[in-house]
Design goal:
The chain is an all-alpha fold and about 325 residues long. The protein has 12 helices and no strands.
């Protein structure tokens, strides 16, 4: 077998491994609220989320994949060694934060890995495409803020709508509606996050001359990435579920519905315009929003602060780890 082709196959498998880990790491984003409100058990919640993670490709295009594959760094410097370093940087940081139970961003770990590996390759930031990186960095602020505002507004709307309803009736209605909101959020999660790995594989194929443009996404890439993410979600991320579902604030089914719906709307908009935002940032902002709608003290701001700190650290930390792996991968082209 041609060694170059073998390396390509291995790197595609590693990329799918990152996608699986992304699903594992971010499973909590899709299921934390519906589990914490006891609408579904964790076992059935992951099955529900995994299904909608997988079918997300039916509803969304590949604009996010094109941004990751060709809009963050110059695609003409892509090499096996660079992709290997970027993936290992992201995977290493994901494992560290997963073990610690910190809901950091797999998306920004991957972006940080790409930037760190590209800097190690060219010796400067010259290969970074600042317009694309700027959009992604803006998502660190915009996605949780938008999730916060939308969830807060939704809580106010439904509170007024059900003002004269009995608590029992409202609880029963929102327990049913949470199936819809959890499905919508899982669609948004699968639609935005799986495309990031599609972009990495597309860049690899372009570097090997298998495609004519870095934004070309073959169907087999789409299906394999959606499958890897869904399988990762099936295995769940129980440590992070605890943080997202109960440590930030306590949720009722109505609040869970508002958080998931606010998060889903944010992800749909971001995926539509091709911005690779963090699903973790988005749902955390939404959960904080519904908690703050009760009273400011309902949110455990100490936990929220530690999560925000992890967000800020993720890009540079993953970038440094990726740069180290680039130098360790001297045996690759």
């Amino acid at each position: 077998m041609d060694p170059t082709f073998l390396i390509l196959v291995v790197l595609v498998v590693v990329a799918l491994g990152f996608d699986f880990l992304n699903g594992l790491h971010d499973a909590a984003n899709s299921i934390a609220t519906i589990v914490s409100t006891r609408v579904l058990s964790a076992k059935w919640a992951v099955l529900w989320a995994a299904f909608f993670n997988f079918i997300a490709f039916i509803f969304f295009g590949t604009s996010v994949a094109k941004m990751v594959g060709a809009g963050i760094i110059d695609p003409h410097i892509i090499s096996d060694r660079l992709i290997f370093a970027a993936l290992m940087g992201a995977i290493s940081w994901n494992l560290i934060t997963w073990w610690a139970g910190i809901p950091s961003s797999s998306s920004h770990a991957l972006i940080g890995g790409l930037v760190g590996a590209s800097v190690a390759r060219v010796g400067s930031f010259g290969a970074v495409q600042w317009a694309g990186l700027g959009k992604t960095a803006a998502g660190i602020v915009v996605s949780p803020l938008m999730g916060f505002v939308l969830a807060l507004v939704l809580v106010l709307i439904v509170s007024w709508t059900f003002l004269k309803s009995s608590p029992f009736f409202a609880d029963r209605v929102f327990r049913k509606l949470q199936f819809v909101s959890a499905a919508a959020y899982s669609l948004g999660h699968g639609g935005n996050d799986a495309q990031k790995t599609m972009g990495i594989i597309a860049a690899l194929l372009f570097a090997h001359g298998a495609t004519h443009a870095p934004g070309t996404i073959p169907l087999w890439v789409v299906l394999s990435c959606q499958t890897a993410m869904a399988l990762g979600t099936l295995f769940g991320g129980w440590r992070i579920v605890h943080t997202m579902g109960s440590k930030i604030t306590r949720l009722t089914p109505m609040q869970g519905f508002c958080a998931e719906t606010g998060g889903a709307i944010t992800l749909f908009l971001a995926t539509h315009i091709g911005v690779p935002v963090s699903t973790t940032h988005t749902i955390t902002g939404a959960i904080v929003g519904v908690g703050a709608s009760r009273r400011v003290s309902a949110v455990r701001w100490g936990v929220a602060k530690s999560i925000v700190t992890a967000w800020i650290v993720t890009l540079p930390a993953a970038g440094l780890v990726a740069a180290a792996f680039y130098y360790l991968g001297f045996w690759m082209k």
